[in-house]
Amino acid sequence: MTVTEYLDKALADSEKAAPEDLVFSHKGILYPFTFCNPETFQVLDSFEVRSDDVILAGYPKNGTNWLDQILNDLVITAAKYTEEEMNERINIGNELSVFLRLEFGDPEKFKRMKELPSRRIIITHLPPQVLPKSIFKSKAKILLLVRNPKDTAVSYFHFHNNMPPLPSFNSWNEYFTAFMHGKLCWGSYFDYLIEWNKHIDDENVMMITYEEMKENRASGVKRIAEFFGLLLTEEQLQAVAERSSFQAMKANAQKTHGAFGNVLFRKGDVNDWKKLFNEDQNQEMDKTFEEHLASTKLGAKIKYEVYCKT
Ligand code: A3P
Q: Ligand 1: distance of its center to the CA of 271 in Å?
């Protein structure tokens, strides 16, 4: 099965599910049944990380599919694969049915993942305390992707209401309350970042923001390549940056993501929150950010004053 076939099937299956059957809870955090399996969570620790794994961590809607494409492009270009080798790499992934996120799929997937060729790209929305412990014991590098909370909330709102595997909300106001209380799939944005802040000084962790990628994609691509030790020429880096523009990825969406592409590539902008947040919601978000993240090293890198106040 290919990624697009997998996504198309997931969307079609969840159309038939009753709203109460869409999610389950693991360690107090909700996950969608369409993609995740409670049994897989029981055996997460059986995942065997490799020191050269390329790991991307990000809360939903922080731009994971964007960085997924960039990382794949960087790894493939650096490895100098021929077209045949590249197709073989894709075919192995498809045959092993290991799709999209570390936490997706059946409990046997971690065994099958041993057959994936290096360098593997491992993407996850899981908070660090839920991730397989071996990840932090290994030398594998983790890129942490973070987007400002207001744009994250808006992007996730549209996603909930347009993505059949996730529960819908009757209004933005109802959704906003759920976001602020972490009653969404993958839990609270704030708890997620509070936990990741504990790893911000880890040698193997680098943080990058959605906003800095938007402001200078070429520079972001270069930093990412350097962090993972992927050797590309300036021209190759430039080409990776060009192929990952919002317009280029949206134009290619049918091929890369099937019907899901229509939901995924929505606006791709900074500041869309201004259309939905009312004054009370702005104040509530500002206060929560101030209380939980503003004084942390990770919080400072979000540049809240720039992206969430002006
Ligand atoms: P919006 O809903 O604000 O448009 P994720 O991949 O983690 O689900 O994140 C999805 C968000 O990333 C969406 O935000 C989507 O439009 C945005 N996105 C995807 N590709 C992008 C790109 N190439 N450039 C900028 N934003 C992108």
A: 13
